[in-house]
Amino acid sequence: MALTSPPPVSSSPKTTGLFSAIVVVAALGYFVDIYDLILFSIVRVKSLNDLGITAKEAVTNEGLFLINMQMAGMLLGGILWGILGDKRGRLSVLFGSILLYSVANIANGFVQTIDQYAWLRLIAGIGLAGELGAGITLVSETLPKEKRGYGTMIVATVGVSGAMLAYWIGEKFGWRNAYFIGGGLGLALLALRVGVYESGMFEQAKQAEVERGNFFRLFSGPRLLRYLKCLLIGVPLWFVVGILITLAPEFGEALNVGGPVSAGLAVFWCYFGLVFGDFASGALSQLLKSRKIALQLFLLMCGALIAAYLFALRGASPTAFYRICFVLGFTVGFWALFVTVAAEQFGTNLRATVATTAPNFARGSVVLLVPMFKGLSALQVSGRPLGIIGAGAVLGLGSLLVAFWAVSTMPETHGKDLDYVEPL
User: Fold this and answer.
1) Beta carbons within 10 angstroms of residue 176's beta carbon
2) Do 343 and 137 meet the contact criterion of CB atoms below 8 Å apart?
3) Residue 125 contacts residue 74 (beta carbons within 8 Å)
4) Dihedral angle over CA of 274, 305, 228, 73, nearest 10
């Protein structure tokens, strides 16, 4: 658990401005990342229908299978890109991941079978795993520590708005063209490499020949507990997005909402709320000078809105349902703050590994949440199945409790100097 200072170097790492090329590229990269990441949830029903899957149960089951493939790719990619980020540099991961998910999404527009769809979602997931962690690490290491929270706030606020563009493109141009456009946006980003430089902290660690990017070093003693806490903070967000919002039509039916509920609109309103939530959580952590208090407040709000989603919407109108989706999205708008905290917990030689694996393992928790959700839904209680409402309540409460514990027992990192390495 003890930390050590980096070996002596000739100069301090270079810092940059709040609206530098580094922040702009990281923000736009995350914008395209979110567009591609959330696009499947928006076009799930239409794309599966076009591929011949029309039965309601089959659409749900195949949709969950494809989500699991994408998330499994993100688990693999999180480890791959995280290690590369600490061994080869933040920039190589930032642009390498953009290239991979862009090509995969263009190919996704040509699929004709479920198997093709599944393998391309896996490959796209691997690519999507790298951008956020590399971007947040690069921004955190190049901005002055007093402005670090504002920088990651900008990255998140711009980034999550990519989901709204995904909804509009998916509705206006069809699901195949939506994949083509997403891939094209990613490839266009590669032209912005000019003006983006590598992290000075990484260059110092590289010159000092410190061991970097050893993923297995995270599994030793107190460091493992610190790492697990980082992972657990992000689980409630992906419970909300991966279960409650992705399956909004099914929840709408179970709640007898007075009209059909569109998964695309639910995603749109949730991510619209996320835009404001990411801005608010980042700004709040700076104003309060505390990452922990900001995260705790947002987790408490999230619990209240999950309860409202599951128990206060019975017989409501679709409009009321979407309003709850918007506010629920706001309450889980601590995503970039969560990644920032993960990056701030570890030294330069493991920072990219943690900042890249943590959000992807949190996203990948959907792989575990989905079977748990299905199992709980079928669980017999007093001779009746718990159903999706009861399963959502149990799973939501559990994810929030472990996340709140993780935040409450972590050290505060606001204003922390990141120019150090982990003793290995």
Assistant:
1) 16
2) yes
3) yes
4) -50
Reading the block at residue 48, the tokens are 């599966």
Taking the model in full, what pTM does it have?
0.83
CB environment 273-296: b (16+ within 10 A), e (fewer): bbbbbbbbbbebbbeeebbbebbb
Alpha-helix runs per DSSP H in 190-220: 200-207
Give the tokens for residue 185.
């946006």
Total structural domains within the chain: 1
In DSSP terms, 175 is beta-bridged to none
Instruction: Kindly provide the b/e burial profile for residues 325-351, where b requires at least 16 CB atoms within 10 angstroms of the residue's own CB.
Output: bbbbbbbbbbbbbbbbbbbbbbbbbbb
CATH at residue 346: 1.20.1250.20
- The span from the CA of 316 to the CA of 327, in Å, is 16
Residue 12 lies in a domain: no
Q: Would you state the pLDDT for residue 381?
A: 81
Structure confidence by residue, pLDDT tens digits, 144-180: 888 888 888 898 889 888 888 988 898 889 999 999 9
Which domain does 395 fall in, by range?
Answer: 21-194+218-408
Q: Residue 418 domain-assigned?
A: no
* CA-based end-to-end distance of the chain: 10
What is the CA 264 to chain-centroid distance, rounded? 18
